[in-house]
Design brief:
- By secondary structure, the protein is of the alpha+beta class.
- The chain has 2 domains: 260 residues, no CATH class; 167 residues, Orthogonal Bundle (Serum Albumin, Chain A, Domain 1), CATH 1.10.246.
- It has 19 helices and 18 strands.
- Strands 1-11-12-2-3-8 form a 6-stranded antiparallel beta sheet, with helices on one face. Strands 9-10-15-16 form a 4-stranded antiparallel beta sheet, with helices on one face.
- A hairpin with a 7-residue loop joins β17 and β18.
- α2 packs antiparallel against α3 and α12 packs across α16.
- The two termini are 44 Å apart.
Length: 521
């Protein structure tokens, strides 16, 4: 079991002094990473993690395991694991040292216009209209086609079995279904699948079977992406959408493609940090934040000291300001990636950081706004016995996405259409209004999903990173990386340490664990 639970290989050396100087065993930290000697699989759900682990035991590679885990999570973690969403994957080939990145972000239906999504001063959140064309099946199967070694049927069979035979409902699944009642009960198929006739969520420890989803997965295992995007399943999705006020047509489905993108990277204090480029704007935010922070001595300032918290907050704010203006689908907008990641540009940004906290609008031109992004999503990290690795983040958007279940297919659909800049060109609105991320037919909305790989100064893979958390994701990764590199923490310490969150505007958020003196300052 220990091999199942780790995203990071870390050697712990314990020095036991002679009995004259120390009589009890002591460790470097109260928080210890789990050690995996052969390979590792980490996901948010134990069933999916075990699926990936078994695939690696059978001789599959990291990509094989990632495909199996992705489809298993669609069964066992329905609030985020998915067929009806989208995401981004980084693939590291140990033999060639090459890193490939696949963009399978959801895309806008061709008939969508921003006016459809505006609801007063906010953006619609649930229902068929907010469904974007799903990319998860295309992305996972593209990765398998180009990098996998085992047959697709072998990789999907565990997910098929979990859907057909069922699994035990956890307290967590019961809780989130109760939490998500409003959107889920509004859709009859979701209501029938996840709730009783008295509108109670699935009971804890009951066996949850999903026969429609099992049939869908079986069809995909036999016919691949063709049936999902051009065949029977595409017909189910389009029929479900168009007959309920949605926009997804058969042409939208058939036109969708997973795309290779160029990974982006920086050097941070001698460590190579590689992340996903646009439309996954989280990678740009992460790397730009680290570039700005490199201009300061965080080690000397001290972990989570008032000075370090101030510097983190200010660097994050500046990176998110650029996101609000320049980040978008690179097929539709010329994102200034090279400039954004240059050390000179970061130094200029760092020089604008003073001792006092930047006030909203003080140094940022224009009417910049955050996006209304839910703190959801799921991530998994995998490394095989050969050293090949996968960092994959995918999402439905909000927990359970739009709340819409495709009745014939048994899977949930995303609500990613709400992540465009629907207020483009308008002043005084609460949410994002940038040209770079304005809605256009077939376009992919930006995302803070941030699959990331970190290599040590000797070029060895050191960390496989990613996180749920919506708009907080790049800030989470910034602090984990800084905790390890700047403050010498073990990976487990780095993950467990309390974090801050600061985006473009609004109050600084601090997790529990900061000293009252630091908070006061």
């Amino acid at each position: 079991m220990k091999k199942l639970l780790l995203t990071f290989t870390y050697l712990v050396f314990v020095t036991v002094l002679s009995s004259r100087t120390q009589t009890t065993l002591d460790y470097q930290s109260k928080s210890h990473p789990v050690i995996g000697q052969d390979f590792m699989v980490v996901s948010q759900n134990i069933h999916a993690t075990e699926v990936g682990y078994e695939i690696l035991k059978k001789g599959g590679n990291a990509v094989d395991a990632s495909v199996a885990v992705g489809f298993a999570l669609a069964v066992t973690l329905p609030r985020a694991g998915n067929l009806g969403g989208g995401g981004f994957i980084l693939i590291y080939d140990k033999d060639t040292e090459k890193i490939s990145s696949i963009d399978y972000r959801s895309a806008a239906p061709k008939n969508a216009t921003s006016e459809m999504y505006v609801d007063g001063d906010s953006v619609k959140r649930f229902g068929h209209l907010v469904n974007a064309v799903p990319g998860s099946v295309a992305g996972l199967l593209k990765a398998h086609e180009d990098f996998g070694s085992l047959p697709l049927r072998t990789l999907l069979q565990p997910a098929i079995d979990l859907a057909k035979d069922g699994f035990e409902v956890t307290y967590d699944l019961n809780y989130v279904l109760e939490w998500g009642k409003e959107s889920m009960l509004a859709n009859q198929a979701s209501k029938d699948k996840f709730y009783s006739s008295s509108q109670e969520p699935l009971k804890v420890k009951s066996n949850f079977k999903q026969p429609e989803l099992a049939k869908t997965l079986f069809k995909i295992s036999k016919q691949g992406s063709e049936i999902f995007y051009k065949g029977e399943i595409a017909e189910w999705i389009s029929e479900e959408s168009l007959s309920n006020g949605g926009l997804i047509t058969l042409d939208d489905m058939a036109s969708y493609k997973a795309k290779y993108r160029e990974p982006i990277e920086i050097d941070y204090r001698g460590y190579r940090i590689v992340s996903m480029g646009p439309a996954a704007s989280g990678g740009l935010v992460l790397l730009q934040t680290l570039n700005i922070l490199e201009n300061f001595n965080l080690k000397e300032a001290g972990h989570n000291s008032a000075e370090t918290v101030h510097l983190l907050s200010e660097a994050m704010q500046r990176a998110f300001a650029d996101r609000a203006v320049f980040h978008g689908d690179p097929d539709y907008y010329d994102v200034p990636v090279e400039k954004s990641l240059s050390k000179e540009y970061a130094k200029e940004k760092a020089q604008t950081i003073g001792e006092l906290r930047t006030k909203d609008g003080e140094i940022f031109a224009g009417n910049l706004k955050n996006y209304d992004e839910s703190p959801d999503t799921t991530h998994y990290s995998i490394i095989d016995s050969e050293g090949n690795a996968v960092s994959n983040t995918y999402t439905l958007g909000s927990s359970f996405g739009s709340g819409v279940t495709v009745k014939k297919g048994g899977f949930l659909m995303n609500n990613q259409m709400r992540n465009f800049s629907h207020f483009y060109g308008q002043e005084g609105k609460e949410y994002g209004n940038s040209e770079a991320n304005r809605l256009e037919p077939g376009k992919r909305m930006i995302s803070t999903q941030t699959p990331t790989l970190v290599f040590d100064p000797d070029g060895r893979l050191m960390m496989i990173l990613g996180s749920p958390g919506g708009g907080r994701i790049p800030n989470i990764l910034t602090q984990v990386i800084s905790n390890v590199i700047d403050h010498g923490m073990s990976f487990s310490e780095a993950v467990m340490a309390p974090r801050i969150n600061q985006r473009l505007e609004g109050k600084l958020q601090l997790e529990t664990g900061f000293s009252p003196d630091t908070i006061k300052l």
